[in-house]
């Protein structure tokens, strides 16, 4: 069983919809990450939260909006997405930013119509 | 940033065969992990191995940090080993992923 849980596992949305992806970890980790992955490519870093503060934003378009309500939770709010945003979105956590083993959730597969 | 290259990019094996996957990195790293991404997309941790050799069942890994490479050995491959294998290194306070090796094991 993965110790990082993501919901939903699958999401289909139109370009005008607003939706959110959710991630939770109970390992006491203080760094949480959002990655975007296209088929057979490595995960691409989007955002890093360290001690609940946004540490890295890899020039991600504003239609993606991260939120870290507390040390266990990480959300990704989606609005006005484009079809090219269709991808697997992966949440991960580690003991601290760039420190310790990185653990991934099962991912949320997003399709934008 | 650091460059992480994996080879081969694609590999097809008959069930029961052995294989070696390689991960080269361009600079000193603080740590290294190997992952298996299954066909459903989940990234499964295989090894957390900054240096030395570890074994877990049919899989083993060796990292030679001074020479900037790591090897993942898969013995007696099974169809369930199919998927994409990624290495990831830590440099500074960031994780950098390799280019991946796509493995297909045929019965």
Short description:
The complex is a heterodimer of chains A (113) and B (107). Chain A has 113 residues and is mainly beta.
Written description of the protein model:
- The complex is a heterodimer of chains A (113) and B (107).
- Chain A is mainly β and 113 residues long.
- Chain A has no helices and 11 strands.
- Chain A has strands at 4-7, 10-13, 18-25, 31-37, 44-50, 53-57, 64-70, 73-79, 87-94, 103-104, 108-112.
- In chain A, the strands form 2 sheets. In chain A, strands 2, 4, 5, 6, 9, 10 and 11 form a 7-stranded mixed beta sheet that branches. A 4-stranded antiparallel beta sheet of chain A has the order 1-3-8-7, with no helix packed on it.
- The radius of gyration of chain A is 13 Å and the shape is globular.
- The termini of chain A are far apart.
- By secondary structure, chain B is an all-beta fold.
- Chain B has no helices and 11 strands.
- Chain B has strands spanning 4-7, 10-14, 19-25, 31-37, 43-48, 52-56, 59-64, 69-74, 83-91, 94-97, 101-106.
- In chain B, strands 2, 4, 5, 9, 10 and 11 form a 6-stranded mixed beta sheet that branches. In chain B, strands 1-3-8-7-6 form a 5-stranded antiparallel beta sheet, with no helix packed on it.
- In chain B, a hairpin with a 5-residue loop joins strand 4 (31-37) and strand 5.
- The radius of gyration of chain B is 13 Å and the shape is globular.
- The interface between A and B is medium-sized, with 22 and 22 residues.
